[in-house]
Amino acid sequence: MIYPIVAYGHPVLRKVAEDITPEYPGLQDLIANMWETMYASNGVGLAAPQINRSIRLFVVDSLQIIENLEEDEKKDYPDDKGIKQVFINAHIVDSAGDEWPYNEGCLSIPRVREDVYRPEEVTLRWVDEQFQPHEATFNGVTARVIFHEYDHIDGKLFIDYLKPIKRRLIKGKLDDITKGKVSVDYKMTFYK
Hints:
This protein is of the alpha+beta class. The chain has five helices and nine strands.
């Protein structure tokens, strides 16, 4: 089942999401539907708040980015093999490395892309879909996608990292998204 993506302006995107337990109703179906929704929307990550669920759950498939890099780009991410992973109740343990720019976009903020600076590495503690605990460090593009999706479960958006002048320059686009005046090739839901 493909869920509609929650558009910028919906309050769920600004809430800090809650941890869940293994008894969360329909969790396995929810995860399967999140993967389906993410791929149908041509995304590389999707967080539960983006489908109107304020829970600490997100999925990441950075394999598709790594696999599609040009040969000369692969040298920029030598240690990043990519992942396809479910993250439940994730919490950042540490971040490290120099901040570097990458042109980010978001399914909830269509037609807006901007350079965002983030650290090179993130260490995360989470449980998987069987509620087995994990802790690992990710780098490169994979770390970037994780930081982006993690922000969603903390009520943040990539545009929050932009300088005020950039925010003013995209204000019209953001207002249009909030009003539903945007055309995308995936299902969206707008806050009225």
